[in-house]
Amino acid sequence: MMFKLRWMGFLACALFISPSSGSAPPAPLELRIAVVSDGHAAYFTRLLEASLKLIKQPYHIQYVKDIPARRMWWMLGKDDINLFYGMQSKEKDNDRRLVVVRHGLTNGLIGQRVLLIRHADTQVFAQVRSVADLKRTGRIAGFGAGWGDTKVWKAAGLPLYEHAAPWSTIYAMVAAGNRHVDYLPRGVIEVLEEARRHPELAVEQHLLLEYHADFAYYLNPSVAHYRPIIERALREAEATGLKARLIEEEFGADIKALNLNRRVRVPLSMPPG
Predict the structure, then answer these.
(1) Which of 79, 186, 245, 267 counts the most CB atoms within 10 A of its CB?
(2) CA distances from 160 to 117, 139, 140, 141, 171 (A)
(3) Is the pLDDT of residue 11 over 70?
(4) 64 or 237: whose pLDDT is higher?
């Protein structure tokens, strides 16, 4: 599922209304999209392109990669790029430098969390049945600095560590066991891919932590007029089953392998704001 992207010139989508229709084709969407080189970009870019094709909306896309996610958000606010995808939050939705496309991208799967842990901690997490149990372990969750998930852990009173350095270094920190971070709560659409790249860590087999969260596309205000077009495309992808098919193609095998129905479900609350 690794999605290898290079700097690409404009990719023209040759989807136009036939001249015989008697009306001019819609103007192409001119998109500059940031993609995170973490193995998960394929679904979010496939969904966008396939949805636009579904409604016969022409587009040109330039992909930008290999930039830290926090800088990508800065670039989006500055109009260096004009579309990015990430965890939806009220903070982002209320940011005047961003325009949210109002359609969840993962059907809530990103809010279903399985833990990446040290192999030696398997029995520690196997005893957990509740938030209180998880708190009693004394184990510290790891997140990127400023991630919306941190609010969930803070609201539950669970200890956490926010990693300001490049995210790729945190896996070794967890494995080391002496760096103030003990486990990584990862979405069910990403945890096994990350485990394959980091065999020094284990996928915890017992728990499923759940809260209401999803990814969304965000636009720069300069292309705010694209929002209703992209929202219409995503609604059509939902209605036709295209979105469900892409989720199954990209993540279905991994989700099945996680045996979610056999796990102890621990609900968490996404606090307001």
Answers:
(1) 186
(2) 14, 8, 5, 5, 15
(3) no
(4) 237
Q: Is 67's pLDDT higher than 60?
A: yes
21: exposed, middle or buried (Cβ count in 10 Å: 0-12, 13-18, 19+):
exposed
Q: Render pLDDT for 195-224 as a digit per residue (tens, 0 to 9).
A: 999 999 999 999 999 999 999 999 999 999
Identify the structural domains of the chain with CATH numbers, from first to last. Answer: 11-108+214-240 (3.40.190.10), 109-211+263-267 (3.40.190.10)
Average pLDDT of the chain, as a whole number: 89
For the chain, the residue count is: 273
